[in-house]
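Render Large ribosomal subunit protein uL4 in 3D.
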Amino acid sequence: MSKIEVKNVEGKSADTLELSSDVFGIEPNIPVVHQVVVAYEACLRQGTHSTKNRSAVSGGGVKPFRQKGTGRARQGTIRAPQWVGGGVVFGPTPHSHALRSNNKEKKLAMKSVLSGKLADGELIVLDKFAFEKASTKQAAAIIKALELQNKRVTLVVDDDDVETYLSFRNLPKVVIYASSEVNTRILVDNAALVMTVDVAKQLEEALS
């Protein structure tokens, strides 16, 4: 089992949490993490980039000048690639950029990131958020208490924790996600990963 200190919203130690070594204590597999992140970002590309080749450019239906006797190179159309306004040679065409990672790779990548964050001291587990109503001021106080003011912070909360989401969403350098949304890219792209005990247990159960 891997142990981590649980803090409260005031930044003080509140408890100790034992986490599964199979999820939070493995040797990070960096190549798999890279592969999964690249695949995720590739799937975000729309692939709608397009250019017109010589057959798609309008005009140019007539031969620009006669074949012989001008002293110039023969030309068949003003829409050939060497002409201004002509078609593009080997230009991009709409296509899918999607790459595929299987479920075992995705789980291994997430476990690698969580284990690396824990080993590097970049994983912070809180006992709970106690927002009676949305308060950005209170959220900023929590960030300050955890000494994360100048760091890029990723906050993972329960799916139904609306008040916490509304409280943190306007803070600079803080991004917040529901536990059902997290993936390898979300977990790795930060300098501090913050979650509650309940969320840590949810991830542990999902990745075990």
